[in-house]
Amino acid sequence: QQQQQKQQQQQQQPGGGIPQQLNQGMQGMSLQQQQPPPPGPPAAFPGAPAPPAQAGQFRAPPAPGGGAAPSMFRPPAPGGVGGSAPPPPHMMGGRAPPPPGQPGSAGAGGGASFYGSAAGGGAGQPAAPAPPRMAPSPQPPQAGGATGAPNQSSPFQENVDFNITIPKSIFRLATSKIPASNGLATQTKTPMGAIIRPLGPPHPDEPPIDTVQPGNAGIIRCKRCRTYINAFVSWLDNGRRWRCNICAQLNETSSSYFCHLDEQGQRRDRLQRPELSKSIVEFVAPAEYMVRPPQEPSYFFVLDVSATAVQSGFLKHAANAIKKSLDDLPGRTRTKIGFITYDNSVHYYSLAPDLQSPQMMVVSDLKELFVPAPDHLLVNLKESRKVVESFLDSLPDMFAKRPVAGRSCLGPALKAAFTVLKPVGGKMCVFQSIMPNLGDGTLRPRENPGIMGTPSEVKLIRPDISWYKETGIEFSRQQISVDMFLFPYQYMDMAALGDLPKYTAGSLKSYVNFQSPRDGARFECELHKTLTTKTAFESVMRIRCTKGMRITNFYGNFNIRGTDLLALPNCNTDSVYGFDLVHDEQSLQTNAVTIQAALLYTSSDGERRIRVMTQALPVVTLGSDVIKSVDAEAMTSLLAKQALEVSVKSNIDKARLKMQQACVDMIRAAKGGDKRTVSGYQVPPPPGGAAGMGGSHQAAMSGEEEKEMPANLKLLPLYTLAMMKNVAFRGGTDIHPDERVQARHTVGGLFVQDTIKFVYPRMFSIHDMSDDAGRSLAEDEKDDNEEVAGRDRILLPKVVNLSVERLSSDGIFLLDNGIDMNIWVGRSADPQLVSALFGVENLEQYDIGQISLQTTGDDIANRVGAITEALRQDEADPYVIAPRITIVREGDMNAESRFFWHMVEDGASFQGGTYNYSEFMDFVNNPSVSAPGAGPPGAPGMGGRGPPPPGGMGGGMPPPGPPGGMGGGMPPPGPPGGMGGPPPPGPPQGGMPPPPGPPGGMGGPPPPGPPQHGGMPPPPGSGGPPPPMPQAPPGAPPAPSSSGYGAPPPGAPPSGGYGAPPPAGPPSGGGYGAPPPGAPPSSGGYGAPPPGAPPSGGYGAPPPAGPPSGGPPPPNYGGMPPPPQRGMAPPPPPGRR
């Protein structure tokens, strides 16, 4: 009856009549096997359909009554399916054709447009919501059902195949579904956005990217918004026109590109055209996409040759890596190359093909810099190969006899290199070992230990001068990208230097206290990959999205032109960018949102190409659907990049608080369930129980029962906690400013899975690994509980939680964060195992800085070597980067304090990091109980990979203590005065719980104060006092202690800051300031003299009185054992992949 009544109403509209009846009758047959109602007099019973109107006659719609439901709540007639004809070509302007079987068809008043004008049966009637069983199946693009609430316009229904997606190795969305309104997005508290790696290497299981050669019609694009043709556009008028899925513009199809449509409304040739059936394609760009002819791939090297650089040994490794890469440089016979060196003057090199060796030309006037001989400074590599190799062979010893100590004119050298490279653009690699102190770009020491760990620390991560930013922007305009390789032994102000790679789409890598045996292999691998990986030159990228949404806040290394064009002089396989997606209108009028990213670039072969990546996302009306679509790993990566921006614009404390708040908000919204809303306002459920979508809300409001945390969000609290304790964001006074800046560049440049590894490392138990661990397994041999890595499918050892309680004195543990590896060796470890891995039976008797991991030899060494190799292999990436492996000996307080930074499941000794994993889960599940009042602090949260949180996260875990943080494991509130300040001086509390303090603030971050157990529970099995330090042989220098950044060596008085005069005592072997091989040992920390130079005393005056800067207090090996965790059992091991 409803179907017949609806059809009768439609016949009463202008343009109704016999053709309309036939159309609707055919559609009715296709879905419900019904015939159209015959015309005749009105039925005698109430609610019967009215008699049909004559063609062109206007009639008022029948009033609802009797047994018939009101028209505004009646289900609409189903749309047509296969076999329905395309719409007639009588569309006007940008209006969409009315779907068949729906009101407003040709000639009817009030026909539905793309933006959802009224489509009801009468004037002013709202659209009728479609019941679930009537959801539109695949139909022609113009078909679709109206959905929505009263007084809302009907959204446009696209015929979208959501199975067409961009490979995850290239594009990862934080949420794969889009809220239908801005109010729903606010309700779910879920940030939207994505991480994109445009040239990411495809996985072996993924098909190769198709290349499209445009025909006579050229590259098909929307005439209004310039969107590229893609698989999600709608075809109309039997293929003669197509509607843009970004701006809804109707575009004419050129005759050379025309093809008829099939019964589904799709082009019949779509499977033969990759741009119409694939999510990612590459177009070969015609001449109109070129501003100038494609230039030759050019590589220019700017090398520091001061005394520090010469004595450190990195010049030898740089020459080796460049020489090894010459055959693999992109461009083949077109490649160009050039060199400049500098100390207190700039040295040009003529590489003319007819020379036997390079000709050096020195310019010492840094103010009036000039190019002495412009020819043959940038030469064709094939023509000048012999002279280039001659230069590289002589580079390590060229300046060894008379090095210039402590002088560096980096700024003038950059200007000289810019002059040479400007005509063609290309890649510039800069190598620097000391702070620039001559000419343009001179930096001044600005370390300030007094502001470390306070909100004012943000001054040290902001650039002090704008010269490097301005230079980077000028480089970007000339298509020059800069990759910086830094080798610091003292403070270098990476915050200022980092602007150069940031605005030129380059990268920043640093090798603290560079030592050839430990760092040489890694440096060579990274430089080789930088030079030889697939690179897009002279590239720009623009990202578009459907009308109603907006792209905001781009993240990564680039220079933005206008509002949305990313200028990328170079873009390679490691280039990663992020963006936020927000609502631009209150509600969306379409059932799909499309995101399209287009990268225009010049390939290494000189071909101009456009890589187009397009993906459609469904629009949903339930908050639970949005939350269930969250990709926890992608959310972690996106929110980490957001927090980087917050920290530099505000301060690091606020960045941590925003991450914490976002985690709490998303979990709370997920557990609260869907809310019933009317006109954007939440409506409480009726008394007496749940009804419809509002049922779970009543339970949530009453506090009787909440939904459990969704499975896809269970890792979110863990990774939020881990990110807050990462070097890029953690508080305290033990993070050196340069170290933090490097971590910020690392987090900002990592893709999704690499971000997860860096934030939450994996720790493997080596001493008790199975006999098969470290061996290759076939596919059918792998158990579900086992994890393999590498191209040879190497079985990995057991993974343990990141907690000091998992360590044991008789064990050996390998920790890998994707960049560095640490091996923690217990003092009671098996001597035979220690001998097999390190070549000595007892590490206590030797200088730990001279011990290295043995990866070949007996069976156990071979297996561990296979494990470390497999952890660095990626099936999609042909490059393997050798890791820097640091050996941490139990009892080495300075080295262990840095190792314990990775124990993110334990409490830390800085404001905002005092929660351990158990306490943080209590806080996330019960924020009002753990910290009563105005709710928890915070913003963007994270999700990802790692040990799943304990079961039963539906709010059943007891809170850590009563309000105010008293007892229950929460530290007492400390004195006021800001967040993240240095801890009060004094010894650790040794495991005794602190006395209770006054009630804490309402809903804020955990109250400040020193953590229990000195900030870190002692490792089990270490109840005795630490053994004495090894005695050095007579006449030998004292053994270093592998300390961290600026940490004082054991037994020395606190240094109080960075750059202070080195205290007397054994030198440090693991941090800034340690000497390179062959140089006399120096004290640990920044401020140590460069190799071969007399001690400089660092930068700055004697440190102010305050706590030592050597990291958190060392574990109390002789104190009481740590209390058991409260509120929950220890978390299980990380989830395996």
Distance between the termini: 55 Å
Q: What structural category arises from helix and sheet content?
A: alpha+beta
The fraction of residues in strands falls at 5-15%
The count of β-strands is 32
* Poorly predicted segments: 12-155, 688-704, 931-1137
Roughly what is the average pLDDT, rounded to an integer? 74
- Total helix count? 25
Q: Tell me the major beta sheet.
A: 8 strands, mixed
Q: Which value, in Å, is the CA radius of gyration?
A: 33 Å
Describe the structure.
- The radius of gyration is 33 Å and the shape is globular.
- The longest helix is centred in the middle third of the chain and has 21 residues, at 652-672.
- The chain is 22% helix and 14% strand.
- Helix 6 (314-325) packs parallel to helix 13, helix 15 (632-649) packs across helix 20 (752-759) and helix 16 runs antiparallel to helix 18.
- By secondary structure, it is of the alpha+beta class.
- A hairpin with a 4-residue loop joins strand 5 and strand 6 (241-243).
Set down the secondary structure blueprint.
Elements: H1 2-11, H2 18-32, E1 171-173, E2 178-179, H3 182-188, E3 193-196, E4 210-212, E5 234-236, E6 241-243, E7 250-252, H4 274-277, E8 280-284, E9 298-304, H5 307-312, H6 314-325, E10 336-342, E11 346-350, E12 359-363, E13 379-380, H7 385-398, H8 410-421, E14 426-432, H9 458-461, H10 467-477, E15 480-486, H11 494-497, H12 499-503, E16 507-510, H13 516-532, E17 535-545, E18 549-555, E19 559-561, E20 565-572, E21 577-583, E22 592-602, E23 608-620, H14 623-628, H15 632-649, H16 652-672, E24 677-678, E25 681-682, H17 695-702, H18 716-724, H19 737-749, H20 752-759, E26 762-765, E27 788-789, E28 794-795, E29 799-800, E30 812-816, E31 820-825, H21 831-838, H22 859-871, E32 884-889, H23 893-899, H24 917-925, H25 927-930
Parallel strand pairs: 2-23, 4-8, 9-10, 9-14, 14-15, 15-16, 31-32
Antiparallel strand pairs: 1-3, 3-21, 5-6, 6-7, 8-23, 10-11, 10-13, 11-12, 17-20, 17-22, 18-21, 19-20, 22-23, 24-25, 26-29, 26-30, 27-28, 30-31
Helix pairs in contact: 6-7, 6-13, 15-16, 15-20, 16-18
